[in-house]
Amino acid sequence: MALRARPRREVPAADRGHRPRPFDPEATQAILTGLDWLGLDHDGEVVSQAARADRHAEVALELLESGAAYKCFSSQEEIAAFREKAKEEGRSTLFVSPWRDADPATHPDAPYVVRLKTPLEGETVIEDQVQGRVTIGNDQLDDMILLRSDGTPVYMLAVVVDDHDMGVTHVIRGDDHLNNAARQMGIYRAMGWPLPVYAHIPLIHGPDGKKLSKRHGALGVDEYQKMGYPAAGMRNYLARLGWSHGDDEFFTDAQAKAWFDLDGIGKSPARFDFKKLDNLSGQHIAAAEDAALLQEIEAFRDVTGEPPLTEEQRDGLARAMFCLKERAKTIPELLEKGHFVLAEAPIEPDAKAAKALDPVSRGILASLTPHLQNASWSREDLEEVMARFAEEQGTKFGKLAGPLRAALSGRAVTPSVFDMMLVLGREDSIARIEHAAASGMD
């Protein structure tokens, strides 16, 4: 099966034959980079549509020769006048060219466009895999332009020729292109080519139920990587957006490949929900292999302009990953939790953490370090040492946790104190606690 996902952009008006936007290498590279980050590979080389203009024109001329297309010499002024008169008379403003059946002997020596002959009667039926059977009267379809007056092909022709030549069997795109399918089918039939399977899916809406746009914060794929969403979570969310497999929300790539079919696509617009994206992102971070997550972290730091991890930082994150992955919804959240292994000693607390290091707390930390010197440094032993020390101080361990978090990481929100101490080891943990205990003293 060969698939094509069509970009959801406005198609140039056929009568005007507007040119597509100029080729933009940077925009093209952004698309390819985004696909690469998402892990979505493609078959064959990337081909620019503009590079195949000769092939597109060749098909238009073949249609012209077979009588399925014709030369139209009507000017823009004549077309505008036709529509104005039709409007005044209450008729359809769909342009009907006087050159459709003209004798070639009457053709003037003047610029012309090549138009496809659309049947004047009957219906065009689209057997759409999502929208169902869609019927459009042929009297609602114009004779669309295939070649402009300078001989260059239009998008509507180019995309059909490319799809046929590249063996595309399924065209899955936004339902705003449904009417285009009826017009493009005319080219397929005139050329005797098999029709692809069409599936026109509803557009994505914002939280307010309106078509997703920049005012909703709609972003390019690369921006989601910069925001710290893991590729697996993004793939999961995008696959689930408008498609379902029962009540399954979280699934792997293998499950998505095994489960996906067009029957699972709904007819109603999906709403982009960052809360759901965050939730799935967190589940994929928690389920990720540590080595894969480290690669994702390094790619994130690269695209956000952060320096690469040092060998020591990589080792620290690898040791700490077991206590970082839980409840981290994005890569930045995971890195914030991992600050205790990324920061260089001596650890300086931020404003929130510093509040936990008042003189009383620093005195308690100073008293704690001798108790840690001879601990076996297992979780069980550390918990026992802390519980016994808290009892001696006439308090509970919960009261010690804040100062310890600040001392070990410089942050108020961290993984478990015991997890951090196990990752850091005896020497580093005690050194940080001693530094915090001594801070602020003359």
UniProtKB/TrEMBL annotation:
One of its GO terms (molecular function) is glutamate-tRNA ligase activity. Its EC number is 6.1.1.17. Pfam families: Anticodon_2, tRNA-synt_1c. It comes from Salipiger mucosus DSM 16094. Coiled coil: none annotated. Belongs to the class-I aminoacyl-tRNA synthetase family. Glutamate--tRNA ligase type 1 subfamily. The keyword Nucleotide-binding applies. It is an enzyme of class 6 (ligase). One of its GO terms (biological process) is glutamyl-tRNA aminoacylation. Residues 8-24 have a biased composition (Basic and acidic residues). Residues 1-25 are annotated as: Disordered. One of its GO terms (cellular component) is cytosol. Residues 310-436 form the Aminoacyl-tRNA synthetase class I anticodon-binding domain. This is Glutamyl-tRNA synthetase. Residues 24-278 form the Glutamyl/glutaminyl-tRNA synthetase class Ib catalytic domain. The lineage of its organism: Bacteria, Pseudomonadati, Pseudomonadota, Alphaproteobacteria, Rhodobacterales. Keywords: Aminoacyl-tRNA synthetase, ATP-binding, Cytoplasm, Ligase, Nucleotide-binding, Protein biosynthesis.
